[in-house]
Amino acid sequence: xxxxxxxxxxxxxxxxxxxxxxxxxxxxxxxxxxxxxxxxxxxxxxxxxxxxxxxxxxxxxxxxxxxxxxxxxxxxxxxxxxxxxxxxxxxxxxxxxxxxxxxxxxxxxxxxxxxxxxxxxxxxxxxxxxxxxxxxxxxxxxxxxxxxxxxxxxxxxxxxxxxxxxxxxxxxxxxxxxxxxxxxxxxxxxxxxxxxxxxxxxxxxxxxxxxxxxxxxxxxxxxxxxxxxxxxxxxxxxxxxxxxxxxxxxxxxxxxxxxxxxxxxxxxxxxxxxxxxxxxxxxxxxxxxxxxxxxxxxxxxxxxxxxxxxxxxxxxxxxxxxxxxxxxxxxxxxxxxxxxxxxxxxxxxxxxxxxxxxxxxxxxxxxxxxxxxxxxxxxxxxxxxxxxxxxxxxxxxxxxxxxxxxxxxxxxxxxxxxxxxxxxxxxxxxxxxxxxxxxxxxxxxxxxxxxxxxxxxxxxxxxxxxxxxxxxxxxxxxxxxxxxxxxxxxxxxxxxxxxxxxxxxxxxxxxxxxxxxxxxxxxxxxxxxxxxxxxxxxxxxxxxxxxxxxxxxxxxxxxxxxxxxxxxxxxxxxxxxxxxxxxxxxxxxxxxxxx
Length: 595
Hints:
This protein has helices spanning 3-13, 25-37, 52-65, 79-91, 118-123, 125-134, 151-161, 210-215, 251-262, 268-286, 301-315, 329-338, 371-378, 399-415, 490-511, 528-531, 535-556, 560-570, 581-593; strands at 41-46, 71-76, 113-117, 137-141, 166-171, 176-177, 187-190, 200-203, 206-208, 222-228, 230-235, 240-244, 293-298, 320-322, 343-346, 359-365, 391-396, 445-450, 453-459, 462-464. The strands form four sheets. An eight-stranded mixed sheet has the order 14-15-13-16-17-10-19-20, sandwiched between helices. The chain is of the alpha/beta class.
């Protein structure tokens, strides 16, 4: 036995017999199915947030303890996920090296394997093949669809792990491909969903979908809040065109309206960010999530940087800006996941796999619209920690995104049945907006401006606007249930969101002065006292109140929601999210007397 084999055998002997982490029912069922068949290849499709990592590491621990394998190799999409996998494995008694590079030959002594990335495997596939065949190895291909990001990656993965003893493939949602771009070690069947001739969809050995996870309280229910608005842009002929996001008509016009809405220079993005921040405030103060946070997904790094500046102008606080080429990206993700920052702006760094349980709000400000990316991104805000939690996704009211949202919403309604309604016609897909022209090419489009307004929430395949239905008005104490399907009717949920949007517009108009630093330019209010009260002051007061409520709750052993309720009784007025500066100051002083 060579030194490499001896090291691996010794490591396998130290492997845990079982995991101390309680397994969910689906994980137990999937493990039972695997062990009954003992297959060479096994694909698990489990909705984001369901616990794929725990399942995979539990299987790895069992195979190591029975000496069916002597090494575990995890292939992840990003460097940050390497650290996340290594930390999760360490908690289960499995030592995986997250820092092994292609410059180092053998696997380091004292470990039971390592974590690498698809890019590293593509760099030296034969090196990874040698590591995987030196001893019997279990190769875990996390988010295996990344092996299809380029034909060279798929070929490298097949070359590296074609001779491995066991392979476990993981993904958050079924993925589609063309017949000539098959991903290694994955079985396919004809794609009936897309309806394209010759299309294929992955076939899992075990599937655990959003519907099942929601029924098991593993994930949060999601409410999709769509925002429309009028976009104005200049086309290649120099003509100024205006169109509504939700009433654009043709695919081409819809594409340009969508692009214009996402432009940082317009008002659609700041308005939706303000609505998102308002929702986070509500969750922190009255929704039982004092650490609630939000994610903003941008199309590219330039937009992400611009959106981060807008977040600072709107909220008065700088967000966490997470970019893939930033060497500190992993540390920023970890800091955001464990810290108290309200918002993170990113491109694709948090689109899949990254665990941020306190994130419950997502703003979709990207042109991506594939089913796979949509499910993975929404999966970042659905991981459940308590039964009362819910997630909110703010998105443009364009057909491709509404179609994807309706698909998830339909699964939700299998668990929480909606009222009867007529199904809508199938929505046609929209191609991704084209990128900016290269140097020397004619400019085909120029964004001019865009505004935003709440459009509707999705429920039962129907868009509910909340307009013209006085009976949908609910009492303030019931607003805590906003976003939890089944507790409020769809019209009540839409009515509340519409009301908050109206209040948001009023606060902006009353509090923002004609200043270059403000994100929305309006005339000064004639009342000097009102003009001196900025929205930032109100935001800071709400944050102070939230901190004081947490201190009072800790001192009195009462839930934060109870303290907020008592505070509103003692200092009457609307919820803090829409209260005036005077009311907020009075509540702050009242809280100080309680400490």
